[in-house]
Design goal:
The complex is a heterodimer of chains A (about 325) and B (about 325).
Chain A: E1 8-24, E2 30-45, E3 49-53, H1 60-67, E4 75-80, E5 83-84, H2 90-97, E6 100-103, H3 117-127, H4 134-147, H5 164-176, E7 182-186, H6 194-211, E8 214-219, H7 222-228, E9 231-236, E10 239-245, H8 246-251, H9 256-263, H10 270-275, H11 306-310, E11 316-319, E12 322-324
Parallel strand pairs in A: 3-8, 3-9, 6-7, 7-8
Antiparallel strand pairs in A: 1-2, 1-4, 4-5, 9-10, 10-12, 11-12
Chain B: E1 4-17, E2 20-33, E3 37-41, H1 48-55, E4 63-72, E5 75-76, H2 83-90, E6 95-98, H3 112-124, H4 128-141, H5 147-150, H6 160-172, E7 178-182, H7 190-207, E8 210-215, H8 218-224, E9 227-232, E10 235-241, H9 242-247, H10 252-260, H11 299-303, E11 309-312, E12 315-317
Parallel strand pairs in B: 3-8, 3-9, 6-7, 7-8
Antiparallel strand pairs in B: 1-2, 1-4, 4-5, 9-10, 10-12, 11-12
Classes of the chains: A alpha/beta (about 325), B alpha/beta (about 325).
């Protein structure tokens, strides 16, 4: 496995993010917290794509935002290029941010409708002072738009004139403007139609090849990540339950949740899909305010044993490229 | 020969907007027999939901059905003096619908029980007690535990998957013969989607009802449907039995859609994409709506609209140069 800490671009250690959600008790003496992320650790190597997969409420987006320092972690550490950035502040944080960018899920809500495409794409350049003149900015914008597959006349138009796929390209051009090392792509294709989705995934892959970009690719199911990720981490209720090389996740899933997640993605092949053994989960996701003491998947797990309900399984090494957190397997 | 329940003929729906007339649905013809599950597949703007709304008489202004017909067991729901009365009789009783968004389809200020009993009290004239018993039975049918207690709860106390179960229960309350499910699982997580699809298949088995499943996901259709109608740019591209259609798509759009759908069971080094974007339906091209994105398009495709043509029994395609079917 290539996760030696020296060449990891990003390293997350025991990350915890708890959001306050009011108080309880007669005097309101107990503060209550949603345990959105609870002890997550992983590394991402330069040039690699780590797929972070989980369903709503699993903490995948919160993890991504925390790495970008848009959310302050409750505990744990984040390292970028070997430097601890968990508590970086002020001007240093601002300088840091140009190296780490975010591509949003919603191509409709994430672009200011009152700004032209040229303004949207050049804004980061201006804010970070990386262009000296208007002509230089214009040249950079034209080059970025062209690279992202947008027509040359796009610069003067407003976001509403573009389709979802094209807007996502604008969002990518904006994220690339400062030539970052690292991009968090938060479900960048979930809102797009299938035929358009492939265009955007291919663009992200081409950009990675050309510019040695490192991605954290967040997704809610296992279909698209298979084609873009080198390694995949599966999150459930705020914790990583399995982390492995891409092919290992699909060929040899260890955690029962990974297995269920895999089996619930329908395959577009009628005889195959009908013959598949599908694992349908029952039961409810645990309350994030009061997570259970044992394995968080215990309430829905088909293989649950007594130990699972009382003791939380650690993420243990199963092979050189595979880690999983399960007592049973 | 099985019994024909629904027949849609040359359906046309247009929306009068400030930008012009949007030709949302053009010349759509298909049918549903008793006990059958038909998938209506298409991407955003393909006209699949508008078709469903037209069948249910739910076309909202500025939309109007401007041509064609929808017949239920031979009676028109669109034209003729009795169409209005017929629609009122059928809708909610014999045909019912499940919508996409379980978060907004329930009224947040009334309890779930209140909303469930309203249906049978109104449609079947049940008394309060009868309706309550029926609602409990239905919640049990869709796999909600403790139905008697959960009846008293409000929608906010239900998760997304549970709300979708409630909506399915509501749609089933008058024992419909056809259930139209418009993207019933799109807003849900994948593991919850698997639960709801299993529930739909199970209910269909037990009650023998017909289902029109509207979705953008070819995978969902593969597991559920007997026949598939593929829509593109407001028109039907292809109709056929699911297995044939997936194994040998005749329309280049179906082919492209299948190619570009990422699969969990195999690695493609690179996803195949369909370049370009769907046509603007205010001014659709004179030829095939897919012409501009089609790798096999000829001059004829750009100038002449291909009609649905029969390839073999139960299999039709609207394309001038279809791929040979089986």
């Amino acid at each position: 496995m290539r996760t030696q800490s020296e060449d990891a671009l990003i390293r997350v250690e025991d990350l915890k993010i708890h959001f306050p959600v009011g108080r309880s008790g007669f005097w309101g003496q107990h503060r209550r917290f949603v345990h959105a992320v609870d002890g997550v650790s992983f590394g991402i190597i330069r040039g690699e794509t780590l797929g972070l997969v989980g369903e709503s409420g699993s903490g995948k987006t919160t993890t991504g935002r925390a790495i970008l320092r848009r959310i302050t972690p409750t505990a744990g550490a984040i390292h970028f290029r070997g430097r601890d950035i968990t508590h970086t502040k002020g001007e240093a944080l601002r300088r840091l941010r140009r190296h780490m960018q975010l591509v949003f899920q919603d191509p409709y809500g994430s672009l200011n409708p009152r700004m032209t495409v040229a303004e949207l794409v050049s804004e980061p350049l201006v804010v970070h002072g990386s262009v000296q003149s208007v002509t230089e900015a214009r040249d950079r914008v034209v080059a970025l738009l062209e690279r992202c597959g947008l027509p040359a006349d796009a610069a003067g138009r407003y976001p509403h004139a573009f389709s979802g796929g094209q807007r996502q390209r604008i969002g990518i051009a904006r994220a690339l403007a400062l030539e970052p090392d690292f991009i968090v792509a938060d479900e960048p294709v979930s809102a797009l139609d299938v035929s358009i989705r492939a265009q955007v995934v291919n663009l992200l892959q081409d950009l990675q090849d050309e510019q040695a970009l490192t991605y954290l690719f967040i997704a809610h199911d296992l279909s698209v990540v298979r084609h873009i990720s080198h390694r995949i981490a599966i999150m459930y209720a705020g914790q990583v339950v399995e982390l492995a090389d891409r092919d290992a996740i699909y060929a040899n899933p260890i955690h029962p949740y990974t297995e269920a997640l895999l089996s619930s993605v329908p395959i577009p092949d009628p005889p195959l899909q009908r013959a598949r053994r599908r694992i349908v989960l029952h039961g409810e996701i645990p309350d994030p305010v009061k997570p259970p003491p044992g394995c968080r998947f215990a309430s829905r797990c088909p293989l649950v044993e007594d130990r699972c309900r009382t003791e939380a399984p650690p993420l243990t090494v199963r092979s050189a490229t595979h880690r999983a957190a399960c007592w049973v397997r | 020969m099985s019994e024909r329940l629904l027949q849609v003929d040359d359906l046309q729906v247009r929306f009068l907007t400030r930008r012009g007339v949007v030709q949302a649905v053009r010349d759509v013809t298909f049918h549903i027999d008793r006990g059958e599950t038909v998938g209506l597949v298409g991407e955003s703007g393909s006209g699949k939901s508008v078709t469903a709304q037209a069948i249910m008489g739910l076309t909202e202004l500025p939309g109007r059905i401007t041509g064609g017909d929808v017949r239920w067991k031979g009676e028109s729901l669109v034209r003729g003096p009795n169409a209005g009365a017929e629609l009122k009789r059928v809708r909610g009783n014999e045909i019912s619908m499940v919508f996409q968004d379980p978060m907004t389809s329930l009224n947040p200020v009334f309890s779930v029980g209140n909303q469930l009993t309203e249906v049978t009290r109104r449609h079947l004239g049940h008394s309060r007690a009868q309706a309550t018993e029926r609602a409990i039975e239905l919640l049990d049918l869709v796999g909600i535990s403790n139905p008697r207690q959960r009846m008293k709860q409000h929608p906010s106390e239900f998760s997304g998957g549970m709300r979708q179960r409630v909506l399915i229960a509501m749609a089933l309350s008058c024992e419909p013969e056809l259930l139209i499910a418009d993207e019933p699982t799109t807003a849900l997580d994948v593991t919850i989607q698997a639960q709801i699809l299993e529930l739909l298949a199970d209910i269909q088995d037990r009650l023998g009802l017909s289902v029109l499943l509207i979705t953008h996901d070819l995978g969902v259709v593969a597991g559920m449907c007997d026949r598939v109608c593929v829509m593109y740019g407001g028109r039907l591209a292809e109709i056929g039995p699911a297995e044939d259609l997936y194994a040998k798509p005749a329309h280049p759009y179906t082919h492209g859609l299948l190619e570009s759908t990422p699969r969990v069971d195999e690695v493609q080094p690179r996803l195949v994409s369909i370049d370009g974007a769907p046509p603007d339906l205010v001014a659709p091209p004179p030829g095939c709506p897919f012409g501009d994105r089609c790798g096999w398009a000829t001059d004829r495709c750009h100038s002449e609209l291909p009609e649905m043509t029969r390839l073999q029994e139960g299999r039709s395609v609207a394309c001038w140069n279809p791929f040979p079917a089986a």
